[in-house]
Design goal:
Blueprint (H helix, E strand, L loop, with lengths): L6 E2 L14 E2 L2 E2 L2 E2 L4 H8 L1 H36 L1 H19 L17 E4 L16 E4 L1 H6 L4 H12 L1 H12 L10 H17 L1
Length: 206
């Protein structure tokens, strides 16, 4: 085994002028690590500071990347489980069921024959009547023309809805809507989860 010889601590290239001249086995840029000259060069010279900064960045990059990925995962999770996300996905589950339930039925308003493009249209608007936003008697298959271009075509909806759900359920729906102003409704996470699960289950039963 070759035995390394001690050499004087003296700086070369970018470290020129920082050596103490003491014999040392462990050198970088000709500077002895054990005598502290290399550390002195790193901390006090411009070139040393640049090298130290690069080494710090290189050493911390994996940790910073991991922290960034962890924070992104946390943000994504909050979005997936936040109230807005739950409302959106409950709406999707509800409307998916309504479209499947009313497959083959005419538009609730204008009686246009069934089209796969029919949407889930509300009788009492969901943005105004939040307590019956997910009430299945309040949502029926409706053509795009009525739902989007005619703002729900409420007048014809009112004519045809009792025939679709029966007079008793129609009156009950109107009663719920009349109480809307008396109720300050705020959706709870568990309520939304239950409604979403309910419509997913109903869809499977069709």
């Amino acid at each position: 085994m070759i035995k390394h010889k001690s050499k004087p601590c003296k700086g070369n290239a970018n470290a020129k002028g920082y050596g103490c001249g003491k014999p040392t086995l462990h050198r970088v840029y000709g500077l002895g690590k054990m005598c502290g000259c290399y550390s002195d060069w790193l901390l006090n010279s411009e070139q040393g500071k640049i090298k130290l900064q690069k080494s710090i960045i290189k050493a911390t990059a994996p940790r910073l990347k991991a922290e960034k990925e962890l924070e992104e995962a946390r943000v994504a999770k909050r979005k997936r489980t936040g109230l807005g996300w739950l409302i959106k996905n409950t709406v999707i589950a509800c409307h998916e069921y309504i479209r499947a339930r009313d497959k083959g039925k005419n538009c609730i308003s204008c009686q246009q024959p069934y089209n796969p493009d029919h949407q889930a249209g509300h009788y009492f608007k969901s943005e105004l009547f939040s307590t019956i936003k997910f009430n299945e008697d309040n949502i029926h298959g409706q053509c795009k023309g009525c739902n989007l271009m005619k703002e729900g075509n409420e007048s014809q909806y009112r004519v045809n809805l009792p025939n679709r759900i029966g007079k008793e359920r129609f009156e009950a729906l109107n009663h719920l809507a009349s109480n809307e102003k008396k109720v300050s409704h705020k959706w709870e996470r568990e309520d939304l989860k239950q409604i979403r699960a309910y419509y997913k289950s109903k869809l499977k039963e069709l």
